[in-house]
């Protein structure tokens, strides 16, 4: 398949991710005046964005190319074209205009219908029991090592390193010092005896006389 190993450990052709992120069906800037100037073609060798049929004839004649089609405002590709270059096992197929197709990217679905027993592993769209993913994009995500670890409950990129913990501890110490600097200190306690025996206030001696302190 001419695949390369990605950062997440999975292997896919170098052109697949750019294909899924390309916007098709715009007007070709080079052949805007032509009758067929809609950009619905993609060159797997050049990977340089959407192309019109005239671009393929003039600049990509001997290159591998595929045609993108539309179904309900979503990009699709015929199985007979894509399976030459990509393993689409597990991706749901549909019949549109007497041709078997697959969707390039997932389609939003609020919730599965009643009685649904099988859904896409990634976006949870309703599927037939014999399929695992609703689109090529979902298969890329669902077969990645990161996604598999997440499904097994293994934290990916979420655990705290010792350095980050030390940094947070240091920040907490500084925060506590700042709070203490703005907190008034506790005033010294005044003994009850000294408060009662103020200077110049007469009080009785044990013998019954008055004592005045100066």
TrEMBL record:
Family matches, as Pfam families: PLATZ
Biased composition (Polar residues): 182-193
Region (Disordered): 182-208
Ranges that cross the membrane: none
InterPro entries hit by this protein: PLATZ
Protein name (database record): B box-type domain-containing protein
Species assigned in the record: Handroanthus impetiginosus
Higher taxonomy: Eukaryota, Viridiplantae, Streptophyta, Embryophyta, Tracheophyta
């Amino acid at each position: 398949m001419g695949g390369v190993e990605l950062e997440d450990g999975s292997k896919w052709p170098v052109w697949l991710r750019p294909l899924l992120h390309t916007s098709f069906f715009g007007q070709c800037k080079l052949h805007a005046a032509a009758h067929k100037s809609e950009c619905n073609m993609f060159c797997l060798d050049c990977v340089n964005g959407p192309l019109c049929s005239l671009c393929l004839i003039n600049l990509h004649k001997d290159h591998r190319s595929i045609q993108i089609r539309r179904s309900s405002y979503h990009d699709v590709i015929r199985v007979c074209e894509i399976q030459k270059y990509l393993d689409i096992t597990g991706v749901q197929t549909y019949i549109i205009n007497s041709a078997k197709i697959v969707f390039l990217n997932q389609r939003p679905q609020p919730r599965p219908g009643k009685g649904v027993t099988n859904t896409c592993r990634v976006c949870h769209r309703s599927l037939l029991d014999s399929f695992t993913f609703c689109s090529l994009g979902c298969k890329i995500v669902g077969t990645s090592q990161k996604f598999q670890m997440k499904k097994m409950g293994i934290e990916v990129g979420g655990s705290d390193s010792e350095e980050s913990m030390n940094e947070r501890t240091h920040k907490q110490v500084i925060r506590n010092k700042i709070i203490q600097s703005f907190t008034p200190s506790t005033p010294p306690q005044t003994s009850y005896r000294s408060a009662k025996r103020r200077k110049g206030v007469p009080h009785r001696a044990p013998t019954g006389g008055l004592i005045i302190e100066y």
